[in-house]
Amino acid sequence: MEIDLSGKTALVTGSTQGIGLAIARGLASAGARVGINGRSEESVGAATAELSADLPHADLVAVVADVASEEGAARAVDLLPGIDILVNNLGIFESRPALEISDDEWRRYLEVNVLSGVRLTRELLPGMIERQWGRVLFIASDSAVTVPAEMVHYGTSKTALLGVSRGFAKAASGTGVTVNSVIAGPTHTAGVRDFVYQLVDADLPWEEAQREFMRTHRPQSLLERLIEPEEIANMVTYLSSPLASATTGGAVRVDGGYVDAILP
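Above: the chain's sequence. Below: its structure in token form.
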């Protein structure tokens, strides 16, 4: 299959590193104009430079904005008009015992992980519906279905995204616009690397630490390894394309078989 996103404009929130950067790379490789989003000029500049070096003909736009705030979301839309593809990737996570999570921290997780995507979708979906074409994706997690004891706040925020994406898909029913969530499994990013070393012996070499983490904390994985960001990006790029025109309202799994269920 050949994925061609020429003439489409995409915004990937939180795309200066990790999964977001890999998704931006995938969409740009397919020919889309891609907004690289982060909170600082430095991080956005570095990510844009990295992608430009790998993809000299890529059409990239720096979108410096904190999309977890109302002002930042509005700024992002102003900086990148005519968005056809919205990938709500921005998210935060960390390990914390459930009984130690404060109200303020719960609010922070819901604001960043859930409301950032809700605001942007609410702003951009009407234009997509008017144009009779668009793609909205929410990057969820296996933690949405199998909520980790050490990250109840994170897991709950990702569970919310499954409902949010289904609801917005209904709002776009019959318009040519699709809305889906992507359930990403344990993925190899810098943040996850730090998280792994919070839970296993910090003196272990990385490959050994990764195996110990998967064996001890994620034994359900059928891959028995962390997923690479590019593997998540491949699915997102496909779902962003005309080829995925009949997939909407879904929770599509790229979890390495981690969720032990036939359906999410």
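The two ends are 26 Å apart (CA to CA).
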